[in-house]
Amino acid sequence: MQNINVLYFLSPIIMIALSVGLIAYWKIKKRFTVWTLLLALVAYAGAIALKVVFQYFTAQLFYDVVGGNLAALGIYFGLQTVIFEVGGAFLAAKIAFSRGRIRADDAEGYGLGLAFWENGVLIGGSALLNGIVWYVTLAGGGLAAEQLFEYLSTASPILFDSSSVILPQIGLAVIERVGSLFVHFSWGLLCVFAVVFKKKRFLWLALPMGLVDFLVPYAGVIGALNFEIIFFSTSLLCLLVTIWFTRAERKNVALTSSLPVIEEGVNRLKSLVRTNFKRAISFGSVYLILGIAMSMLMGGISIVISSAAAEVNEMQVFTSQFFPIMLPLTTVIGALGGLMVFVSDRTKGVYEYLIAYGVNVYEIFWSTLLVSFGLVSVVLGVSIVGNLGLSLIVGAPIEFAMIEIMLIYTIPISYASVAFMCMAGMIWSSLTVRVPGVNSPVGISTILGIGPSMIVMLVGGFLVGSGDFMLLVGGVDIILVGLVATMMIAANKKMNRERLLSDA
After folding, report:
1. Is residue 198 left, alpha or beta, with left meaning phi > 0 and alpha meaning psi from -120 to 50?
2. Which of 208, 238, 442, 485 has the greatest number of beta carbons closer than 10 A?
3. Is 161 helix (H, G, I), strand (E, B) or coil?
């Protein structure tokens, strides 16, 4: 049985290296902040989520109405990019600018951030991860390898072609990603300039760039080479138009950004995050260890059962799904340290000193949220890498279903659930006096944190592997992110500073 051509890995590696390299260059030579990257993530992930939901309800109906007309389908896909991606990028930039979280010299970084999340993560990262799983599964042999080979040889036969055949395809894929970089960079920069300089003409220049996806339905008709040439040329034109029409503003930004700027709020926030992350690991070490241990135990049990039932496909599928489905519950436990630090500091009067030195509610809440995200990353990283490594050591099959569920369910729902738990716990703690036991903010928040995962598990138990399951997970994620954003805005505007003073 033939394995996939290792040259397949060259394409996603180039995509990731290009995306990360540009960000590193901008960070060193120009300006690129973590906040810009996070803002780009919010804008891009929100756009993709809305696209998925919109297409789920309208794609088949629209196709039936237009009868497969390519021009109509092109308009269908192009307008979605215009509204959701370009419009979403403008809306996110506008909200961030109103909060003082983005500046004119962040415009280029914002565009690079949008390109990074598409090319470096969604496409490059997922392609690399899929390729690794496919390669390892096929190399391991057995029933899983035979089934995967049968599927891939039908769905993507080019994976098994010779190097002379696959190399030109890699070149075309890289050209397409470079074009994607150009167009995302262009409308990201224009959206920020439209907000900062209050010039609507930049927005009107950016919106039509989303129509580049009008070409998508024609890819299989005009041929890969012609499609990539047209797509790259269109993207390059967008970049040149952007550079030309923003030359005066960019020159002005270059002059003003060379002057020293004191970002006290950003520096305070960074300091809070660094300090509280170290304290959260120490303060909540028991919960962090417990969360990792529980996830490793569940993964180990799944691996043992899967290895023992190597000839039973149904059992393999079940065990491969058990670990990633249960993992978000352990991340909630492992991330409790961040909320515990917040509750402890408020009770002990730490925030009285911070507020006296100019720290505002927004920075306090954001620092705790980011600390919790860091703890989630630790639990997910150790658990996933540890269990995948254990599978390779004992020779257990790594099912593609497990990787798929991790990408569409485990990772997104873990961060969303912990964010919801953290925000609810901080507001709960700020509105009440300290009480012991399960009725404390930490105890109540834990229940809120595992709630979304339990809902998905109960409702989506019969939907795993279908588009309905992805829709359910996406819907829950969007609701959680919306609730967290609403609570953060409310905390910044409505939460009195006195709420964070000690009640002791």
Report:
1. left
2. 238
3. coil
φ, ψ at 503 (rounded to 5°): -100, 10
Provide the pLDDT for residue 461: 55
Angle at the Cα of 480 (from 474 to 483), degrees rounded to 5?
140
Taking only the tens place, the pLDDT of each residue in 50-99 is: 888 888 888 888 888 888 788 899 999 999 999 999 999 999 999 888 87
Cβ distance 478 to 56 under 8 Å? no
Q: Is 138 helix (H, G, I), strand (E, B) or coil?
A: helix
The set of residues, in sequence order, having a beta carbon less than 8 Å from that of 9 and lying 6+ positions away, is 128, 131, 132
User: pLDDT (tens digit, 9 = 90+) per residue, 172-198?
Assistant: 888 999 999 999 999 999 999 999 999
Query: Which residue has tokens 């229940």?
Result: 447
Other CB atoms within 10 Å distance of the CB of residue 185: 24
Give the Cα separation of 310 and 332 in Å (integer): 32
- The pTM score is 0.69
Token representation of residue 104: 């004119």
Q: CB neighbours of 63 closer than 8 A, spacing ≥ 6?
A: 73
Looking at 330-431, which runs of residues are DSSP E strands? Answer: none
Distance CA 5, CA 164 (A): 11
Helix (H) or strand (E) holding 315, with range, is helix 313-334
* Residue count (the chain): 504
**Is 379 within 8 Å of 335 (Cβ atoms)?**
yes
**Residue 12 burial (CB count, 10 A):** 24
**Tokens matching residue 348:** 């002990």
pLDDT less than 50: residues of the chain: 259-262, 310-315, 318, 435-439, 465-466
pLDDT, the chain, mean: 80
pLDDT of residue 434: 52
SS3 state at 88: helix
Tell me the C-alpha to C-alpha distance, in Å, between residue 143 and each of 106, 128, 147, 150, 274.
Answer: 51, 23, 6, 11, 48
The DSSP line for 337-354 is HHHHHHHHHHHHTHHHHH
